[in-house]
Amino acid sequence: MAFDVEGAYSRRAAEYVEQLGSMASVHPSDVQLVSSWAASVDGPLLDAGCGPGHWTAFLRQRGHEVRGVDQVPEFIEHARQAYPNAAFAVGDVDALQDPEDSYDGVLAWYSLIHHEPDAIHRPLDEFVRVLRPGGRLLVGFFVGDDVAPFGHAVVTAHRWSTDALGDALEAAGFDVLETHTRTVSAPKPRPHGAVLAQLRAAAETDR
């Protein structure tokens, strides 16, 4: 079943920005993880599904060449106003407008959670296309014992087990390097996860 993700976020963009649209709302462990990942990448980064743009701006402020892309126009409008020194564009992670081999790193921080399991290959294939061989991908997501939908505050999302997401990444052409999990405290004790993966050499991915 397909959900109108863009429309759902567009209707609640102002509320989302107010509650989650700044680095003040980010867990310290996530800041450390994303910072460490970005420091390990020597080249341009893509913040794929950048939302209100705070991660893009955060990475740029730390000296990285980075571009943020999101399908929700209201998010991109906010990002351009709030962070005028960063680069943003309206775009779909399932059909990126970038040429092949454009980036050395892709951040997909909770931007794949609304993909149906049988559609997760679409953004992953796009990341393979725009990453240079050896490029690094960092995915943030909600963790579960298996792949299952749940009632996300904006629109239905999916939890993934680290093994299932790792299998999807491996099938797309990545090697999983690290997995991380954490649980936030009440009132919403929801398990979170991250997977760091590296794109295999071109000959191994049939590019």
What does this protein look like?
The chain is α/β, with parallel strands linked by helices. The protein has one domain (about 5-205): Vaccinia Virus protein VP39 (Rossmann fold), CATH 3.40.50.150. The protein is about 35% helix and about 30% strand. It is built from eight helices and nine strands. It has helices spanning about 5-10, 15-20, 30-40, 55-60, 75-80, 120-130, 160-170, 200-205; strands at about 45-50, 65-70, 85-90, 105-110, 130-140, 150, 155-160, 175-185, 190-200. It has a seven-stranded mixed sheet with strand order 3-2-1-4-5-9-8, sandwiched between helices. A two-stranded antiparallel ribbon has the order 6-7. A hairpin with a 7-residue loop joins strand 8 and strand 9. The protein is globular. The two termini are about 30 Å apart. The mean pLDDT is about 85.
List the SSEs and their pairings.
Blueprint: H1 5-11, H2 13-20, H3 28-39, E1 45-48, H4 54-61, E2 66-70, H5 73-82, E3 87-90, E4 103-109, H6 121-130, E5 131-142, E6 148-150, E7 157-159, H7 162-172, E8 174-183, E9 191-199, H8 202-205
Parallel strand pairs: 1-2, 1-4, 2-3, 4-5
Antiparallel strand pairs: 5-9, 6-7, 8-9
